[in-house]
Amino acid sequence: MEISSIINSLNDAQRIAVSSPPQSLLVLAGAGSGKTRVLVHRIAWHIQVDGVSPHNILAVTFTNKAATEMRGRIEELLNISARSMWIGTFHGLAHRLLRRHAKQAKLPESFQVMDSDDQLRLIKRLIRNLNLDEAKWPPKQVQWFINAQKDEGIRARHMVETGDFFQRQMVAIYKAYEEICERSGLVDFAELLLRAHELLRDNEDVLEFYQRRFRFVHVDEFQDTNTIQYAWLRLLTEGRDNLFVVGDDDQSIYGWRGAKIENIYNFQQHYPNHKVVRLEQNYRSTGHILKAANSLIANNDGRMGKELWTDSGDGELISLYTAFNEQDEAYFVVEKIRQWVNDGGMRSDVAILYRSNAQSRQFEEKLMSTGTPYRVYGGLRFFERMEIKNALAYLRLISNRHDDASFERVVNTPARGIGAKTIEDIRLLARGQGISLWQAALDSIAHGQLSARATNALKGFMNLVAQLEQDAEEQELFEKVKWVVEKSGLIELYKKEKGDKGEARVENLEELVNAARMFDYEEDNEENLSELDMFLAHAALEAGEMQGDAYEDCVQLMTLHSAKGLEFKLVFLVGMEEGLFPSQQSLEDPGRLEEERRLCYVGITRAMEHLYLTHAESRRLYGKENYPRQSRFIREIPVEYIQEIRMRANVSRLVTSSVATVSSLQTGTFKLGQRVRHAKFGEGVVLQMEGEGAQERVQINFHDVGLKWLMLSYAKLEVL
Ligand code: ATP
Ligand code: MG
What we know:
By secondary structure, this protein is an alpha/beta fold. The chain has five domains: 3-102 and 193-281, P-loop containing nucleotide triphosphate hydrolases (Rossmann fold, 3-Layer(aba) Sandwich), CATH 3.40.50; 112-184, Arc Repressor Mutant, subunit A (Orthogonal Bundle); 292-379 and 551-648, P-loop containing nucleotide triphosphate hydrolases (Rossmann fold), CATH 3.40.50.300; 386-542, PCRA, domain 4; 651-719, Thrombin, subunit H (Beta Barrel), CATH 2.40.10. It contains 28 helices and 21 strands. The radius of gyration is 28 Å and the shape is globular. The structure holds adenosine-5'-triphosphate (ATP) and magnesium ion. Magnesium ion binds next to helix 3. Residues 9-11, 14, 29, 31-37, 248, 251, 283-284, 565, 567, 605 line the site of adenosine-5'-triphosphate (ATP).
């Protein structure tokens, strides 16, 4: 492989970054300017030109998907296997370290990773155990508190008593939480990072080993590292000038989760010999999209200041669509996608980006009803679904009996006559003795402390787990999973559940078996993990990649946060409304508002060729009807880059296909003064009409409830 092939496809600034002599380097540049590309090429350069072994490379990226892609790109560039290279997310790499050095990290070999949902359940249970009132100590808030401390590297024992009752109680909960995790061998996401940091900090031999091993350390999306992540990077690169980071202060969107833009400044101080490279050409988006992004972000203060340009021409204007309500918004988007696919576009080039997970449902429903394959990233991930978690809990217990969270989850699922009272007794015993629930259950059986019925039921459960372990010993991973799903009675349970839900759950369990079959086990993994343990860790750390059929061409749905670093030809930025995006909580806080604006900048700059902004005049969200104003972010984009879309033509097509069926009336059958009946509001008289097609609205004076504007296509009015 020639050096030229590594450098040829780069511009001058990118070349400088890729080929500079080994030293610390900061690439500070806006979206789509090739930062990630530079990072990949830099690694290739080290291997090809500096003769560095892939074994000596560490690269941290933001998602598993990005890591896989990065590995693929390096392998392609160099035509070598990059297996021995450590590429992953902070969490993934921390997990790897902890597995390899569990003992030095003071963890049991069989420790299990909890995702945030597991963590929340554990905290709920803990609050109950401590006899605290959930209303006063909301589990979510406690979870947030604990994670925020960990992200700053603070353990309960480090916390100084301020005398403040609230703080004292929080610290007490934090402490109890640490104890229960310790005892159960459970590690939450924030703990992965903190532990990995402590491991290096407190074990000189381990630290030296990795400092020597990782001759070159690379970080993508550096602006979103938090305190503990940065501290971890510093340990690894201490006294060496080998940290290569790329980032964009304008895309810092995890401040609410402890990320520190300041790390960009810290880097410049801590690595005094570093070089800074700025990239200014954007290769991703056409001109109007890029200019819109530039104008929007100019509204933020205190930026490091960069302006992007492109030579790819102005391209299309940005389209703006005002929907009546969230359903109309979803119709519009799905209709546009239908046209795109009709015109030969790939579904995987299309992304629907939203601010909050709750928004996905509308789009999912419309996509489903039109038979359009789609995949949702984030949100309720595949591995977070109840039935999947239940199956995984059995698998976890097979691997580690002291996993309390899993014990609680399935001890009576499917129901086997173990009542709340029995479980409470076991909990009490476990708490009193500082032992795991499993051990407590064993002890209570041994000491005859439970009723005969409870004892039998409990024995049944524990024997089942032991039996499953025995049966599974010789089986392949997918056979194990299949066996567990069947023998545990879970499949039976969901088959009995009525309706689509049960069916979907059964399908999901089958998909889990499938996921196990497709699971790519590295037998010679450096951590000596069993295939099952590796699969379980994967399930906790994975972020949506396994969902659905990974190879099907599908529309991508995700939050703006998870869209970071990605690009799509056609992008819909939906729900552009005050109170939704920017979010309600950010409206009062200038700092958070700026973070929302950066998030919008991220969203706009995902688009390569076509960008749609949509908002609704009325929106039902979290069970409440709202009449939001258009997002200020729309107004911050100069009008010359925007075209408003009127859906007349398009919607009337939609009306005939899907909306007309819900309307009992044809357009034009109304007169002013017409008497009508509505299912909920009763009888009334038509006073005004406006709009056309699916957008046609009528104002009615109802005898009982007074004036209302209704959309004809949804209102199901009956003419009297
Ligand atoms: P983000 O800030 O969104 O993470 P980025 O700065 O990491 O963006 P990349 O994803 O690396 O940008 O690059 C954006 C797009 O531009 C990619 O499709 C990439 O292949 C392309 N690109 C980058 N540099 C060049 C170049 N010199 N020539 C051609 N294409 C390029
Ligand atoms: Mg990038």
